[in-house]
Design brief:
Blueprint lengths: L1 H7 L6 H12 L8 H31 L5 H12 L2 E6 L7 E5 L5 H10 L2 E5 L8 H6 L4 E3 L7 H15 L1 E4 L30 E8 L4 H4 L7 H9 L5 E7 L10 H21 L40
Parallel strand pairs: 1-7, 2-5, 2-6, 3-4, 3-5
Antiparallel strand pairs: 6-7
Helix pairs in contact: 3-4, 4-5
Length: 317
Amino acid sequence: MPEVAETTGTDAPTEGKAWELRVAAARGETTPISIRGWFRVLRRALALLILLISFLPLHFLYRVFAYGSPFPMLFLRYAARISGAKVEVIGTHLKRDVFYVANHVSWLDILSMAGACGTAFVAKAELASAPLVGWLASLNRTVFVKREHRMGVAEQINALKEALADNWAVTVFPEGTTTDGQSLLPFKTSMLSVLEPPPPGVLVQPVLLDYGSVAEWIGWIGEEGGLNNAKRVLARRGTFPLRVEFLEPFSPAEFRGRKAIGQESRRRIEEALCETLGKPLRKFAHDVAPIRYEKGDATDGVGVKDTDPMVPDDASI
């Protein structure tokens, strides 16, 4: 049992049973939580509430005398830790006039990155409706994007420009959705239009978010709802590693347009992720209708046959 818990973070009796529940979550089914799991959810929720009650008055008091309160960044940093993420920051991040471009695995990405560098965000609209998580994300002026809402792109870009001018640092997740930490979707570059032309002095810095061996257990993928994912993550035993690696920045002025900027950012993130995994990336195993991605002949991943014997597929259980 201890070995199963260490691998999966759950109270399931076997790794096979834990993986069965993980696959079911990706299909949109509600994940049953054990009594011990609910205790961990409540304990973490209480810790988040205490943290919020402690920091919120300090934030508003600070805003009376000055702008740019540090308390949202500190709150989100500790919120990530309470949620189970042991964040390790690698590399040097730019502190202002920077446009971060990152891969996307979980709602914890926002807590960890904001806690590391105080950035504002562009994230998928579904996150806004996730209980507590959506509100936490809004603390750092997250711009929630409906990928299928093409008529609203100009409005979203304007909000992004305001966030960039206000916070000096903005993060986009150009995959358009969360994945499993083993894949990297094509980058959608509409939000990079803010860099056409680049604001004076602004640099692009790619960022790799790496959850290591727990990525597939943590990832918010498939048909899973935000509430179920948050519940699963908060019910996990112990902690898990999350590496936030700030890669070498580059000037967007050296690339012709948003698509070239997106390609260069993706190339650097893919290179870093392949090096971390020690193997090539695999095709993402779920259709993503809003960005017109089809899984096609994907053979590995949550919900399909996995060649790794240590992680059974749902058909073999």
